[in-house]
Amino acid sequence: MVIEEKLAGGASPADIKDTLSKEMLEIGRRYIDGEIYLPKALIASEIFEEILEEFDLHEGDIGKIAIGVVGPQVHEVGKNLVATWLRCVGFKVLDLGVLAPPERFIEVLKKEEVDIIAISARLTPAICAMSQVIRLLEKESLRKEVKVIIGGIAVSKELSREIGADSYASDFMDAVSQCKKLISKNRASESSF
């Protein structure tokens, strides 16, 4: 395999991940520009995740994100794409999977130093669960400790404001951009104390 040859030739795992990440970002750009379609982006993300797993390249240093799909649904394609592209740019991603109850996000936040909670919803009934995550954060006095981004076909920028989320992403590349902005805001507010 090419990666094994590169490692044997002295390339560091970080260099390999950096090269792969640049290629993945190019694939993402081509998807957004309509040059390739979703199946190719999905195949690329699956290959990228397999390489990360095989060579233990998961660690990121930009920030930590807990991501999951809430509500009565098992559709995880969008979540998986977002998680992959977040890893591409250097986030550490904690994947909570599908059917993640609102309480699960709170549990993870209490155990891990999570910077961002990313919630996906494909079906309208899941909006209540998204809102419940934010209410639970408020109830536990954790809301100021974490940024919340929502995405999925059932949500919009207006809804994100309505339920009290910090951001909304229209697709997986927008999620990367929005999460980078949220991390920058977090760092700026931390340095002002």
UniProtKB/TrEMBL annotation:
Residues 62-193 form the B12-binding domain. Keywords: Cobalt, Metal-binding. Gene3D superfamilies: Cobalamin-binding domain (3.40.50.280), Methionine synthase domain (1.10.1240.10). GO terms for cellular component: cytosol. It comes from candidate division MSBL1 archaeon SCGC-AAA261G05. This is B12-binding domain-containing protein. GO terms for biological process: homocysteine metabolic process; tetrahydrofolate metabolic process. The keyword Metal-binding applies. It comes from the Archaea. GO terms for molecular function: cobalamin binding; metal ion binding; methionine synthase activity.
